[in-house]
Each structure stands twice: as structure tokens, then as C-alpha cells.
Amino acid sequence: MSAATKPASTADALTMSGAEVVLRALKDNGVDVIFGYPGGAVLPIYDALFQQNAIRHILVRHEQAAVHAAEGYARSTGKVGCVLVTSGPGATNAVTGLVDALMDSIPVVCLTGQVPTHLIGNDAFQEADTTGITRPATKHNYLVKKSGDLARVVHEAFYVAKSGRPGPVVVDLPKDILINKAPYTEPPTTEHRTYRPQTEPDAEQIRKAVKLLKAAKRPVVYAGGGVINSGPEASRLLADFVHMTGFPCTNTLMGLGAFPASDPQFLGMLGMHGTYEANLVMHGCDVMLNIGARFDDRVTGRLNAFAPDSKKIHADIDPSSINKNVPVDVPIVGDAARVLAALIEAWKSEDAPQDKPALTAWWRQIDEWRARDCLRYRQEGRIIKPQHAVKRLYEITKELGRETFITTEVGQHQMWAAQYFGFQKPNHWMTSGGLGTMGYGLPAAMGVQIAHPDALVIDIAGEASILMNIQEMGTLAQYRLPVKVFILNNEYMGMVRQWQELLHGGRYSESYSAALPDFVKLAESFHAVGMRAEGADDLDRVIREMIAIDKPVIADICVAKDENCFPMIPSGAAHNEMILGEDQEGGVKGVTDEGKVLV
Amino acid sequence: MSEAENVQRAATIAVLVENEAGVLARVIGLFSGRGYNIDSLTVAPVDETGRISRITVVTTGTEMVIEQIKAQLDRLVPVHKVSDLTLEGPHLVRELALIKVVGKGDNRIEALRLADAFRARVVDASTESFVFEMTGSADKIDAFCALMRPIGLVEVSRTGAVAIARGPRGLN
User: Which of A227, A237, A234, A264 is nearest to A249 (CA)?
Assistant: First the structure.
């Protein structure tokens, strides 16, 4: 073949190193920010990064945080988050973040360095079997062993991360592959050979679903993170559908914001710490439409008592989520937005009338349940109730009207944030739902702030969780990210303490947060601003000051130490066996040993 | 849960996969990670280019678990197709076994007589041993091994089941 007839891409290719091919592939997949930490095996990529301006690199302080930051970035933008870490410990440190993204279906591509191909399997310095370790921690992973595969694999990683049910994908890159010349090929326009998830729902199943929904006397719409993953259009369609049917709607923890919290048809979050009305509606419904949620154990409670008299319709993009925990009557495989659009069309064209009197009676019943006011608390005296702190934070941010993103760590504060902060829009709430990763919130907030530099980004934290990734205060300082860390400090791993109080005879084994740092000084040492609210009369002032400062802030909110998070469905109990705040005296009754083994 | 939902059944599942590094580990990891049973598993490339392998896995579970297994297999990225041969109709299941029997005198004669009845072939012989090759269902091989045990069975090597649907339709 003469030089003139050679494809142009091959001719270019020979001029690019593997590292340059990787960066070009990232750019062609829309990456503008990458969260990472350098090391020996990825030095060629860092060298290539140094010589270009298209991709910005954010240097984190720990690889786990890089993945959480990419998750925050992804969740708040709808784009794929991107991570770059070195071999061995770089990759193993990233594993918690990868599993977190897997459990919560967050699209992330994580590039890991690897020892050169000829040393793989030799127990070389900083070698780990990254594809072996991350196989069950990712949606899919790759080890690139041939330069000719490099560009294709990176393109495919992005396709797999964002298609169908999103998730994390690892691409393991041996150092020789990064250094050697490699050909570049554009992202493919043809279909993937094997992975082609179904997004369009089956018309017959939609028709069956609408038939059930039209005849429903006690319906409920139960929407989850799948609606958010589908994009903002899905949330708009969800609101349209709920309004046109007049049905009540509840959201899972991951689904908060998919339906506006202020809407009169919203019941609040459901599940273990969900509202009284949401859980009783789930228990008493006769037709349930689950859209983009997965019947998680936090949501269902005891399975054999879950929504016992209902017909269930389950729409999910992942066929393996359907009939996994709960057998359903009408399975629908498809993307949430397409399913909702199809349901709306079918609802309009279905002639059967709705049972309006039954629906009115159902709402009367719901209003009775709502009247219990299950999230009521009493703020008396100077000691700040944690619920009050979140509520005031919500009210003040609402009053200020700035675009606000909330991330959380894991524990009581997370549940209070879910209960008391009203989310109006999708993509503004990032929390670790499936894996329950303490230390998620601060790095996630970092990723959100990078994507939305002018927005107000607040990590609602606990004093125990925040210490799990506190080193990221350094990243905030370096990039001048004005993230606000709002610590509900009760000096306990609160949710552990709560379970010990309710289920283990009040033996507070190792749940006290001893030897805490002075968070104000800690903030200052990281070039941030520290402040503290010790009493209820300080609270509003601290919140307002925190928001006003254009720098990272840690606000240490000293809250009541023994407050429990209610309502609560004890493990192994059913939705109608929920405990409310006023019942808490005298401990929890009816938790069997069978229930106790559940997490 | 009703009685019917708790009934266990065996399923022979054929999986066509891209023949890439780690694909078998993905399938096996799925079974161990989610606590499913593997009764047997075989794998080999089946197309002319060697790009596609066929995995035949025999498993046991309730209907709900078997549906889960198929859905979980199907969502693995390198998987082309998953087929539940047990559910989809008449199909052939075969397993190959090599069976070593050691003995002298009457036992040798008895071993040959039984092998003939089971249509096992002698593929190796010494003055005091035979290696038989037989193909058949797992039950048939079990039965043959049980008969050989008192005669001098010392070693068995089995492939696990391979299976294919009857009739003209192909899996691809």
C-alpha cells in the first residue's frame, strides 16, 4: 500500500503515544475534568496532561475521594465522571468508590495504571490484580494488552458506563501501553457487538399497566434513582403523569428531587426512615407503579408483608432488577423517560374511566395519615435539635434562592437531610444510598462544585463520617472550592448509637466519637473558615455567615446528643409496624432475633 | 411465599459469550458472589474464528432464582445470548467421562461386560487396568460409576454437561 492510500487516521496514529491516545479519547467522549492522583504507572498520562489544556485535572488527596468526586460530578451534570489513579494502592483505594458507584448506578470511568505487560503476574512493585479485584466492583472492566485496542477500549468504557443502567467501568493501562505509540480511532458509530440494552418499553406491557392503573382504587407511584439517571426529561414526565392521574407519589432516597417536594401529591420519602403517610400508602395500595427503583430492603421492610394486597407494575432499564426481591405483575423493561412518555400516551388513549370516587376516598385516608405529622419535633431550649438545624438550613437556602446542591455522608444526618430538606429538582441531591459509604459527602461536594462553580454546595455531615475523607479539605483549598461542610455534631456515630439504644439494650459499644478534633481550628489549618453554633440562638447566624463566605467553610453545629431518627421501620418489620418519634419511650418492641440479624 | 414458589428445579443454560480474557471469571464470580449453585459448567470456543465461546451451565434454584440468573448473565457486557434449554423445550444433554478401573481376573471380565452394556469404549488398557470413555447423560455416567466402584474404580474425569436444543433452530 502506498503512503497516499493509507487511511489518514493510521498515519496520525503513529505519531501519538498511548498516553496521548487516552487523552484524545477522553476529549472525544466529552471529558473536560478528571479527578486523580499520580503515581509511577500513570506518569506517562500525567506527562501528556501537562502538555495540553483541553482536560483539567483535579488533584485529590486520596483515590477514594477521586471516585466520589467523579460521582458528584456525574450525578449533578448527567455526564460520565472520570478518574485517573495509579496501579496497586491507587487502584485498591479506589475500590470503595467504585462499589459505591455500582450500587447507586452512577456512570464513572476509572483509568488505573498497571505495571508493564511483561511484568504482570510477577508481583512487581505496586502491582495488583486490578481487573480481578474490581470485577465485582464495576459494571465492566478492561485490561489493555495491545496498543491497537487502546482507543477502542476507552471509547467502549464510556459507552458501557452511560448506557442502560449506568455504572463504573475500569480501564487498566499497563505502563508500556501508555509509552508505546498507538493508533487512534474515532468513537465508533456502529452498534456494540454484545451490549445493547433495551430502552424502548414493550407496547403490550404499557397497555396492561395502564389498564391496571385506570382501575386502581388505591394507587401509588413509587419513583427512584432511575428517573434521575434517565435525565431531567424523565422528571418532567413523571410530574405530568402524576398530575394527570391524580395519584400520590413517593420517592426513594436516590429518587429525591425526581418529583418536587413541595407538590401536594408528594408523600415524602418512603422506607426505613420514610414518612408515615408514604409507608402506609405503600402498605395499603392496590396498584403500585414502581418506576426506576429496585425494591431495596430499606424500602420494602419485611418482604412477606410488603404491600400485601397490591398489583405491582415495575419499570426498570435493568431486567435483572425486575422480579429480584418482589414478584411483580407487569414487568416493563425500558428507560424511565420512554416508559413515562408511553404511559402518558396510553393513559390518554385508554377509554376506560378512572375510579374517581375511590381515589377521593384514598386521598381522604392519606390526609388522615398526614395529619399525624410524623416529622414533627420540638425545638425547646438552647440545645439544637438536629432536625431543626437541617430545617433551618433548608429554609434559609430557599429564602436566598441560590441554586443549591446537597451532598451527605452516611448516618442519622443523612436521613434528617432526606426528611427535612425539600428537593424540587433532580440532580441536586447526592448521597450514598446503596453502599452507605461514610466519607462520601465531602469529595462528592467537591465534584459538584467543580461542575457548578457558582452554585451553593453543602455537605450535610456527621462528625464521625466527615473524618473519613477530611483530607479533601486540602483539595478545596487548592482549587478555591467554596464547599460548605455542615456538621451535625452529636459526638456519636449516631445511627450506630440509635440501633444500640433500640436493639442492643443501650450498650453503646465503641459508638462514642472520642477525641474529636476542634473543627474550627481544623478548618483554619486547611485555609478554610471554621465556625460553630453551640445553641439554637446561634444557628441562623452561623448558617447565614457560612453561606455568605466565598471560601470553604466547616460549620460545627453542636446538636442534641441523644436524638433518634424517626419514623423508623425496625429491621424485619413491615411498613405498618413503623415507630414514630412519640412512641420512642420504653424502647422498640417487637424486634425479633430474626429481625436483628438484618442490617 | 407459596409452596409452588419454593419448588426448586434444575436448569441447563447455554450462554454465548465473546471469547475475551476474564469472561469465564465474570460468569463464575456472578454465581459465587450472588450465592447461586453451579452443578456443572463447561466452556469452549464454538465459531470458526474462535471469537465466540459457549458456556453450558447446569444450576438448581427456584423459578425466581433461575430467572435472576438468566437476567444477571444477560446483562454482562461480553454476553451475546442466554438460553434456558430446560425451559425452551426438547434438548439433548451429553457429558463425556473417562473412567479408570483397576483389577484382575473376574473383575476385568465383569468390567468389560458392564462397559459393553453401557456402550463405554476402552481407550487405554494395561494388564491390570482399563480406561473407559463414555458419553451420555449425567445419570448414565453416575450409574456406570456406581457399578464400577466395587469392581475397582480408581479415578473419574468428567466434562460436565454440554447441551443443544432439538430441531432445526440455532441459538445464534
Answer: A264
